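Reopening this one. Same input as before:
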Amino acid sequence: MRISETDQTAIDSLYRISSLVSDTDDPKIALQFIIDEIVQVLEPNSASILLINPDSQRLELEVSYGLPEDWENAELALGQGVTGWTAMHGLPRIVADVSSEPRYISARPNIRAEMAVPMKDQGLVIGVVNIDSEKVNAYDEGSLKILTLLTNEATRVVARIWLIKQLRMKAKQLEALVMMSQRLAKERDSDSLMKALSQEAHQLIDGDASAIFILSPDKESLHLHSMVVGEVFSNNVATIPLDHSALGAVIHRKKQIEVNDLNFTEENDFLEVIKREGLTSMLASPIVFGEDTIGVIIAYTKRSHRFSNGEKKVFQTLAEMGASAIQSARLYSRIFASEESMRRNEKLTTLGMLAAEIAHEIRNPLTVIKLLFDSLNLQFGGNDPRHTDAQIIREKLDQLEEIIERVLGFGRTNSGMHSRQNLHDMVDDTLKLMRLKLDQQKIELLFEPSDHVAYVNVNKGQILQVILNLLLNATQAMPSGGTIRIKTTIDDNLAHFTITDSGSGISKAIKNNIFESFLTNRPDGTGLGLSISKRIMRAHHGDIELSGTSPKGSTFHCWLPLSE
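Same output, byte for byte:
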């Protein structure tokens, strides 16, 4: 049997198309080569290959020959035109004369005949090969057979190239997961770890943005922890109620979800961020460790996108890795805090022993100083400022003796030392003691006592110690001068006093832990003043707190029960 020249050309073309797998791994290059082979065999005036976009379910032009430039971005709906009909029904079609075909869509005015063959992969139509001629009845069954053979081989080759590309992508994703797990295993800070997760999430599946939301303690809302758009961290702040978002299903069901169009599912303030960043689709996975739901990790795309099973699996794996890493970081933080607490307690024990030794050594010389002071018989007139100074010196000597006795008798109750005192008088006494230091530092003092006298049942020396410590801290925060405001109020059987300075404020790094022992941000500080003050206030059934701090100053608020 003799083979015709056309058939031989087709056979040669089939051989070259089948060799494409070893020549290129780029589907675009392969498709261009295929259409060039089809043009060489069947000699059409124009030709094209359109593939079905799995997200939009529309035919999109991939490569062409002889079509005008305005058709480069052409799209067809399934069923639209001869090509769309072929894609929808999965059947080849010959149109001998396009002027009699109502479905025909003109790409070039001189076209008279058209032939279209579906590209089928495992029974599923993935695209259409289309050729056109300027002659009526240009194609017959023989032409259709040749185009079908070439299309089938082209489909097989393209499918294999896609498969190889997918396998390489999966290998790359696996490598990225391994590297990511090594990176996460080294990270000990949970905040830094979650930022690293959000930074890698969308890149893992070729997305455009990613975010991590943390579940609130009451499990009613999600708070945005970190968001990355492209390669840049976003400064967006957001809280999403679970009942106003598709993310609620992720938390409640602990299942991964995908949303193809966020504009039709989200009804919360975060939708404004989504619109501003141009995000359309999302894949969200729960971050779950055991029975504990930590939050949600999300990948976004700016185009409408249906996430493949492979993308879903690799993203869920990332979420599981992230959950383990976050839990490990939290446990490490707790262990570190426990070790720090043990070290602090050990310091306190040592300090207590040392304090007892020092108190024992100080008591004897202090007794001598008191006796000598009393023997001086310093009698000044009532209007002489030295009269007040002598009284204050005597009170401070008594206070020092009391402190020493308290250290030496640590553990014994000292409730008998309490007495009914006027809070305003105690503040006045402390201010008299501080007047020289305030004048030297050019600090203005404003005292605003309440309208009613505040009587409290306290150990006077200890409360004076608290007020003095707060005032000294305030002066150290204002080395170049400023203002200290003291205000007292009474409500709900409590006496309140606040001390506000105009200093530089307390740094964010320590403001949440300022009442812990040995914590200080001053080179010459001991880190004990506020810790001791808090213990004194709580021993009196009151307390002390930092009610506010900023670069313009700090405010400490103290309260004590009113005396009956």
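So the earlier flakiness isn't reproducible anymore. For the record, Residues 5-167 form a domain with the Beta-Lactamase fold (CATH 3.30.450.40).
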